[in-house]
Write a structure and sequence with these properties.
Layout: E1 11-14, H1 22-25, E2 31-36, H2 40-43, H3 46-55, E3 61-65, H4 74-86, E4 91-96, H5 98-110, H6 122-130, E5 141-146, E6 158-163, E7 168-173, E8 181-184, H7 194-212, H8 220-242, H9 247-260, H10 274-286, H11 290-304, H12 310-321, H13 330-347, H14 364-373, H15 387-397
Parallel strand pairs: 1-8, 2-3, 2-4, 4-5, 5-8
Antiparallel strand pairs: 6-7
Helix pairs in contact: 4-5, 7-8, 7-9, 7-11, 8-9, 8-12, 10-11, 10-14, 11-13, 11-15, 12-13, 14-15
This protein binds 5,6-dihydroxy-NADP and zinc ion.
Length: 398
């Protein structure tokens, strides 16, 4: 196991009816900007529930900013950042999924990057994003009300921002972006379309794989925890498809997705993230849901990098898929585990090839070009996945 420091200050408030805790969690005299997406927060009544909780005590001043897109747009977020400055906002409350929470983290980080006229500087904010926002030393406080279990953004300090004009979808991360708290009320996920529920299960699954399917460093805690999270998703994904009203299943999926990317299973171990970086370019170029880009790319990453990932692929086959038949050779065991993974994604109605989303190998060159433009040229746990490797991965995914 490698040396590490693990720090995660996020208070998680889990369970049905917990939105009312906002009256204790948000400072009583706060000037709050509630941020949300394209309409689900209003339609589901969650936004009203949040506003009622904020007005139940104290003398908070509350503003709203709606319209944060799935794959949140840079330009939209700068408008929210201007609102932060215009109204002296000192607390951001994100109500939504990864897009709203990520977008609000970015707003919290860039609001102080203003021009003389007080508006947030587009150039400074873009420079910040292209350097991962790591050099920003102040941020507006942020809390979250999660409405879709998927990304783990509710309990981490990272995010991803889309800048369509520049055909860029870039990750960022800064400890100042940890939410002070996140409320996880599983009943809020009942209004999700099946597509989004399945996306969430797949995104969480691939988060675990990015931090697990690398090479062994004898990290028994992280490996056992990761394998358990994978097995829970393999069980609960089909279960929630069959019985969407089952609250126990909803609770376990919600908590698994949070645990999949709150840093715990990734601490002290090598991490890959090739699947995600290639996936981001697919979303940016073809507006494919984030999770669906991952289910297309992961199986090909597993096949193309089979040699360097061999030991963990065999461990994955044994401990997650129970492939313990010793008289089979390693290649057969590994291929069976990869096929099982593809079948799991298919069972959830998710694509496993570019063809499944009506793309063919003509899509590959533009993706390679974008990877190069975004300096995604040394990906993976060994930093060796260059553009040729990414091209071979995509060739396999056609
Ligand atoms: O926009 P609204 O109207 O709210 O609708 C949303 C959106 O259309 C809808 N939705 C959310 N909660 C709902 C609901 N509909 C009905 N009932 C509810 N309770 O679902 C759609 C998708 O929402 P979104 O927030 O985009 O989904 P998700 O949580 O999967 O977030 C995806 C974004 O997170 C980023 C992705 O790149 C993508 O931009 N990621 C963030 C990460 C992080 N911070 O650690 C890591 C991930 O790998 C990922 O990259
Ligand atoms: Zn993801």
């Amino acid at each position: 196991m490698n040396n590490f420091q693990y720090y995660n200050p996020v208070r998680i408030v889990f369970g049905e009816g917990q939105i009312e805790q906002l009256s204790d969690l948000v400072p009583t005299d706060a000037r709050v900007l509630i941020t949300y997406g394209g309409g689900s927060a209003q339609r589901t009544g969650t936004l009203d529930e949040v506003k009622d909780a904020l007005s139940a005590s104290g003398n908070r001043t509350v503003f709203e900013f709606g319209g944060i897109e799935p794959n949140p747009e840079f330009v939209t977020l700068l408008k929210a950042a201007d609102m932060v400055n215009e109204h002296n906002i000192d607390f951001l409350l994100a109500v939504g999924g990864g897009s709203v929470i990520d977008g609000s983290k970015f707003v919290a980080l860039v609001a102080s990057l203003t021009e003389e006229d007080g508006t947030v500087s587009r150039d400074q904010a873009w420079d910040a994003l292209t350097s991962y926002c790591r050099n920003i030393d102040s941020a507006v406080d942020l809390g979250a009300v999660l409405t879709i279990p998927a990304t783990g953004s509710e309990m981490n300090s990272g995010g991803v921002v889309n800048y369509s004009e520049r055909q860029a979808k870039l990750p960022f991360g800064n400890p100042l972006a940890f939410p002070k708290f996140s409320i996880l009320d599983p009943t809020k996920t009942l209004t999700l379309p099946e597509r989004q529920v399945m996306n969430g299960v797949a995104d969480a699954f691939v988060h675990v794989m990015e931090q697990y399917l690398t090479y062994p460093v004898n990290a028994k805690v992280q490996d056992a925890f990761a394998e358990s999270l994978l097995k829970i998703l393999i069980e609960e994904g089909p279960a929630v498809k069959k019985d969407p009203e089952n609250m126990e299943t909803r609770k376990n999926i919600m908590w698994t997705a949070t645990m999949a990317l709150n840093g715990l299973i990734g601490t002290g171990v090598p991490q890959d993230w090739t699947t995600h970086m290639v996936g981001h370019e697919l979303t940016s170029l073809h507006a494919i849901d984030h999770a669906r880009t991952l289910t297309i790319v992961l199986p090909s990453v597993m096949r193309e990098l089979k040699e360097s990932k061999k030991e963990k692929l065999l461990q994955y086959a044994r401990n997650v898929w129970n492939l313990t038949d010793t008289d089979q050779d390693d290649d057969t065991i590994i291929e069976t585990a990869i096929v099982n993974t593809e079948n799991f994604f298919r069972e959830l109605g998710l694509p496993v090839s570019l063809e499944d989303v009506d793309l063919d190998n003509a899509a590959i060159d533009p993706i390679i070009k974008q990877l190069e433009a975004h300096n995604m040229v040394k990906l993976g746990e060994h930093g060796k996945n260059d553009l040729d490797v990414s091209r071979r991965i995509l060739d396999r995914a056609v």
